[in-house]
Sequence to fold (201 residues):
Amino acid sequence: MKTLLRIDASIRKAHSYSRELADYFQNQWQIRYPDSQIIYRDLAAEPVPHLNQQLTEAFFMNPAPPDVLALSDTLLNELQAADALLISSPLYNLSLPSTLKSYIDHIVRIHKTFTYAEGGAFRGLLNGKEAFIIHAKGGLYRSLQLEQLDFQEGYLRTILNFIGIEKVTVFPLEGTRNEAYAIKAMEEIRHAIMACFQTNL
Ligand SMILES: Cc1cc2nc3c(=O)[nH]c(=O)nc-3n(C[C@H](O)[C@H](O)[C@H](O)COP(=O)(O)O)c2cc1C
Fold:
């Protein structure tokens, strides 16, 4: 049985392009894997708190006080149980929503999702998983060669690679501030998701 961990980050519960595309992806996933388990995290409905000193110190303790690590451990267990990770996220102020960054800060943990490698480098520990990112932006970046202004996509790819998830597929939806443009672009992303299921999943 396959397990999909879906994480939504848009602050909009309704009329969110990224959530709508994630619904489409999840629907395709459930058609492809009818008996799959879906683990769902809505970071707007249930935000993960910022890191604090007590929690980050507990990351390095052995044994650590379990009550301090309870939420981080739960998030980590969900991630470890998943075969695939689906993140739907808007671009906010050229970067990722702070709720998504807080989530990431809870699951990037020494000796759990990454460790030290020979020569001082790092090695990711979450091997054999893949990730899909649905990324909504109000403006246009690719066609205007302004990708360097988007600090989310590269960061998400890098941090997922860092914890060992090397196969990352991004579905970037641009131009949502123009509804007519967005409707057409949504259709293209749905085709890309469908094609991904036909060829890779
Ligand atoms: C606080 C905030 C900041 C935003 N910053 C940017 C930005 O830097 N660049 C951009 O292209 N769009 C920006 N937008 C527009 C969103 O990326 C766009 O509306 C996107 O469709 C939101 O995702 P959603 O439809 O899933 O809610 C911002 C929107 C909000 C609410």
